[in-house]
Design a protein that fits this description.
Distance between the termini: 28 Å
Helix content: 55-70%
Largest sheet: 3 strands, antiparallel
Number of domains: 1
Number of strands: 3
Order of helices and strands: HHHEEEHH
Length: 100
């Protein structure tokens, strides 16, 4: 039952990216080093988003004003809290992509 709920939550998260309207943002630049130091597991979260969305890791950006991850020229947007929550329950992802 728990595995089913995780699957539904993950599907809902991925589908939400398709439902968000695309907006073009210009001039948003935040130093990567600032994000890495202020957000726990920043690199892992960026890799998580890039894997789930099927894009290059360099395409995933973070908007510090809205406190969310986004992919330019894509409808995807996910708040930091959402991404962290999904990352925490994604045991299969961690096993497949992070286990040594």
């Amino acid at each position: 039952m728990l595995k089913f709920k995780k699957g539904i939550a993950l599907i809902a998260f991925l589908a939400s990216g398709a439902l968000v309207s695309c907006e073009k943002k210009e001039g948003i630049s935040v130093a990567e080093s600032n994000m890495e130091s202020s957000i726990q597991n920043y690199d892992k979260l960026v890799k998580f988003v890039s894997t789930l969305q099927g894009v290059n890791i360099n395409d995933v950006k973070f908007d510090a004003v809205k406190n969310e991850f986004y992919i330019p020229d894509s409808p995807f947007r996910g708040s930091l809290e959402e991404i962290q929550a999904f990352y925490e329950i994604s045991n299969e992802y961690k096993f497949k992509y992070e286990s040594n």
